[in-house]
Amino acid sequence: MAVIGLGLIGGSVLRALAARGHHVSGYDADPATRATARTAAAQAPANARWHVTATVADAVRDADLAVVAVPLPAVGGVFDELASLAYVGVVTDVTSVKGPVRDIALDRLRTGGQSLATFIGGHPMAGRETSGFTAADPRLFDDCAWVLCLEEDGAGLRDWIELAALITGLGARVVPATAEEHDQAVATISHVPHLVAAAVAARIGSDPLAGTLGAGSFRDGTRVAAARPELTAAMCGGNAEAVLDALDAVLADLAAARAALDGADPITTLVPWLTPGHTARHEWPPTPGETADLPARADVLLRLGRVGGWITSVADDGRTVRAVRPA
Amino acid sequence: MAVIGLGLIGGSVLRALAARGHHVSGYDADPATRATARTAAAQAPANARWHVTATVADAVRDADLAVVAVPLPAVGGVFDELASLAYVGVVTDVTSVKGPVRDIALDRLRTGGQSLATFIGGHPMAGRETSGFTAADPRLFDDCAWVLCLEEDGAGLRDWIELAALITGLGARVVPATAEEHDQAVATISHVPHLVAAAVAARIGSDPLAGTLGAGSFRDGTRVAAARPELTAAMCGGNAEAVLDALDAVLADLAAARAALDGADPITTLVPWLTPGHTARHEWPPTPGETADLPARADVLLRLGRVGGWITSVADDGRTVRAVRPA
Hints:
The structure is a homodimer of 327-residue chains. With 327 residues, chain A is an alpha/beta fold. Chain A folds into two domains: 2-140, 3-Layer(aba) Sandwich (Rossmann fold), CATH 3.40.50; 183-282, 6-phosphogluconate dehydrogenase C-terminal like domain (6-phosphogluconate dehydrogenase C-terminal fold), CATH 1.10.3660.10. Chain A has 13 helices and 14 strands. The first copy, chain A, has helices at residues 8-19, 31-43, 56-60, 72-84, 99-108, 157-168, 179-202, 208-213, 216-221, 229-237, 240-262, 266-282, 298-306, and strands at residues 2-4, 25-27, 51-52, 65-68, 90-93, 110-111, 114-115, 118-120, 122-124, 145-149, 173-177, 288-295, 310-314, 320-326. The first copy, chain A, has a six-stranded parallel β-sheet with strand order 3-2-1-4-5-8, with helices on both faces. A three-stranded mixed β-sheet of chain A has the order 9-10-11. In chain A, strand 4, helix 4 and strand 5 form a beta-alpha-beta unit. The radius of gyration of chain A is 22 Å and the shape is globular. Chains A and B meet through strand 11, helix 7, helix 8, helix 9 and helix 10 of A and strand 11, helix 7, helix 8, helix 9 and helix 10 of B. Chains A, B: Belongs to the prephenate/arogenate dehydrogenase family. Chains A, B: Residues 1-292 form the Prephenate/arogenate dehydrogenase domain. Chains A, B: It comes from Dactylosporangium siamense. Chains A, B: This is Prephenate dehydrogenase.
C-alpha cells in the first residue's frame, strides 16, 4: 500500500496502516516532511514501521492501493503521475469534496482512452486543528465517520468492499454515500457552518464593544472563522452548487426567524421556530443503535448511509457487512 | 448588601461578595434553594459567610445595594416588592437585556409618582452551562466582562462608580455602555449566534447522513442550539429590535457569500469575503493593551466602552478609574 502526501491525514493513515501490520510506503513532495517521516519510522516498533520513498513511483511500485492524501489542488497532478506510471491498483483520496475529485479521476486516471486504476472517493471526517506529519496519530480514525463513495450501479463494488474492510480495520465507521450525497451533507454540516461563522465573526470588526462582551456562544459559534480564508474558500467554492442549496435552506429558515422577531409576539413565535434545531442538536451525535449483517450490495449500502448508518466490519468472504443504524 | 435570586449568577455574586468580607444576605423564592444556600453558608470559612433570609424584606432591610438576580420574567415582581418596601438603596440586575429592564425599573421602582431606589442595569457575561446554587462559584467573574449601564447625561454617576468599585473587586472587567449599546452588542455576539446555530442544526433533522458526518465545525457551530427553546426565545424575543438589526447585517453578508458562490469564480471571490471574519476572530478575545487613569465622567467612560475598553479598579476617592484599552 502507498500513501501519497504525509500531512495530518496522510501521516495518520500511514501510521494506522503500519500499526495494523500492513506493508506501507509513504511519499511527500516536501523533502523535510519525508525526513521527519523517515526518522519517525526508525523510532516505531519493528513490526509497525513504514517506508518513506523519494518518488511517487517508488511508493506505488508494489502497492495494490494508493491513498492520495494531498490537498485538493494537488490531486490532479498526483493522478497524472499515477497514470503516467500506468498504475493499475485501487486509488482513493481523503479530500472534502467528492464529485469534483471523481470527475478529475475519470479524466486523469487513464491513458490512451483506457481507464487504468479503480478510483473510490474517500473522506475521513477527522479533526484538523493541527496539521503536518508531526501531528499524525494512528488513532485519529477511532470511531471517525469515513465516507467511501459508491454509485447506485455498484461499479467497483468488490474493490469498495475490500477498501471498507481495510478502513473499518483502522477503527473508523465507514459511511456509504454517492459523491453527490456526500457533497450535499458536508455542505450542510461543514461548509455552511464555516460561512455562517465568518459572517457572525465579521460583525465585531466594526463593533469593539461587542468583541469585548463576546463569551461562550460567540467563541464556539465562530471558532472555524479562524481557519485560513484560502482553505475555507477552496472548500466552499469547490463545492459551490451543494453549498448554495444548503445556504439557501438556512437563509430561508433565518428569514422565518426574522418574521417572528418582527411580529407581534416574538417570544411565543420563536419557540416553535427554535424547536427543530434544538431537537436535532440534542439528539446529536448519533449513537449506535440496531446492528445487522447486511448483504454487500450497492443499493443496500447506500440505503444504510441515507438513514445515517455505517459499517463497522466486513465479513471475511466480503459478502456481508456488519451495519449499525443510529439509535 | 442583598442578593435576590440564588441561581448560578446570584449564588456566585453572593459567594464572591462574602469571600471579599462584605456583609451580605441572600434570598430565593425557592425554599429548597434557600436551604441549600444556608447549609453552604454554615460550611464556609467564618469570615466569608452569608445570611439567607426567608423574605425579600429581611434580605434588603439593612442593605444599601440590592442585586436582583432572578430571570427576566420575574424582575418586575421583585421591583414591585422593593417599591412596596419603600427600598431606597441602589438596585442592579444581571439579566441579558438592559433597555427593557431599565424601562421596568423606571415604571416600578417608585411609589406615589416618586422614584425611590437608583437603578443601574448590569450584565455579567459569565458562562451558563450549569445552573443553580450548587454550581455557584465565587471565582465565576474572574476576568469576566460585566456591563454596567450608564447614560450620556451621567445620571446616578456616583452610585455607578461605587458599584463599579465593588464589581471590579470581584475580579470582573467593568464595561461602561448605554442600555441600547449593550442590547445591540449582545444581539451581535449572543442572540444572533443562537438563532444561526438553531437554523444550522435544524438541517440534520431531515438529513441523517449529514448528522452522521457532522464533526468539529458542526459540533461547535451548533452547541447553543441545545439550550432550551423557551430560554433562547425569551432572550432573543426580549431584545427583538436589536436582534433584527444584527440579524439583517448577517443576512446581508451571507447574501454576498451567496452571490460569490453563484458567480464564475467562487474560490477567488470568497477569499476577500471571508477575510474580515477571519481577521476579527483571529484577534479575539481582546487582550489588555494600554492602561490609563481616566476621570470618572460619563462621556469618558462611555467612550472607553465603545472602543472595547474596560475598568479594572476605581480610585479610593472615586474620581478616577483604572482603564484598559484592548491591544
